[in-house]
Amino acid sequence: MPNRPTPALIILALTLAAAPAAAQTRIGLAVPGGETAPLLEAQMRAGAQRAAGDLDAELVIETDSCSAEGGGDAARRFVESEVEAVVGFLCTEAIEAALPILTEADIPVIATGVRTDSLTDRRERTGFQVFRLGPRADAERDAAARYVVDNWRGSLFAIVDDGTIYGREIAETVRIAAEESGLVPVFVDTFRPQLENQIGLIGRLRRSGATHVFVGGDRADIAIMARDAAGLDYALTLAGGEALRAAGGDVPLTEGIVMIAATQWEDAVAPDGEKPAGQQGYFLPVHAAVEVAVAASESGEAIGDGRFETIVGPVAFDEKGDMEGDLYRVYRFDGSSFAPVD
């Protein structure tokens, strides 16, 4: 006589058949929306959608309008959608308005485009569950200072800036770090930016004997300085910060200009090989942020306590919530683009 299933086995089978599939992890993505930054938003959406698809996670996308009102509204919609975490944000005003609402709902945030130092500096005081996957604002200044101290010892160097907040802050950080290390620049000055030429400044630099100059200024002015120095047969090494990544001006850059800048995410993925097509800009950091958020949610591990494998490599955060590791490196213009310097 054939074996018949017992009532207990029948009940178990029916229970398993009726059991719902495991719910997808739901992750929020905050994008600027409108005409604020359409290219960057497209990169963010593409990265988040690719990661969510690969991880079988559900993605909830909300626009924050790059404003305090928009950030607050987006945060409330994320709470209503019961997301596990939120990634993205490009604008300080939006994320600052969103954080109190999301923190009250116990929803962590991984910011991928906000460099404002105070975002994480006040974490202990506010209790905001915010993490930064990317560099801080002061990281560029500190990296530039390290470069000058480590590489220009024994050189006659100068420090000049264009008088803007950005230019003054980075130049002053470099000067203070140099002097604390026993290095004294032969020339320090503020120049007038956006002139058709910088012959006067180049002449003063030449008379000072400087062979290396750190410039707190923009790409156009640095290009003009390099051109004018070459026109005077003045061998000069020029270095600047991430402003050199801006779109080119009327005067092209010359070979040899040094840039201290955040590592391109593409370099982290393919340091010596072909850069991944369609994975430019914010695609990779947002993809990585979704990976971290999903892994933390599914493992039950707090984002601040873990070390997560992502498309850009291992990601971990310090006690403030800033991404660990040196996120800056040195690049040199090779005549067509900035190439990483080993």
- Tally the helices: 12
Tell me, what's the shape? Answer: elongated
In whole angstroms, the N-to-C terminal distance is: 78 Å
Superfamily (CATH H level) name of the largest domain: Response regulator
**β-sheet strand percentage:** 15-25%
Major sheet: size, sense and barrel closure? 7 strands, mixed
Radius of gyration: 25 Å
Average pLDDT works out at 91
Count of folded domains: 2
Helix content: 40-55%
CATH architecture of the largest domain: 3-Layer(aba) Sandwich
- What is the CATH domain class of the largest domain? Alpha Beta
As laid out across the biggest beta sheet, the strand order is 7-6-8-9-10-13-14
Question: Can you tell me about this structure?
Answer:
The chain has about 350 residues and is α/β, with parallel strands linked by helices. It folds into two domains: about 25-130 and about 275-315, Response regulator (Rossmann fold, 3-Layer(aba) Sandwich), CATH 3.40.50; about 140-265 and about 330-340, Response regulator (Rossmann fold, 3-Layer(aba) Sandwich). It is about 40% helix and about 20% strand. It has twelve helices and 14 strands. It has a seven-stranded mixed beta sheet with strand order 7-6-8-9-10-13-14, with helices on both faces. Helix 2 packs parallel to helix 12 (about 285-300) and helix 3 runs parallel beside helix 4. The longest helix is centred in the first third of the chain and has 18 residues, at about 40-55. It is elongated and about 70 Å long. The chain starts with 6 loop residues before the first helix and ends with a strand. The model is unreliable at about 10-20 (pLDDT under 50).
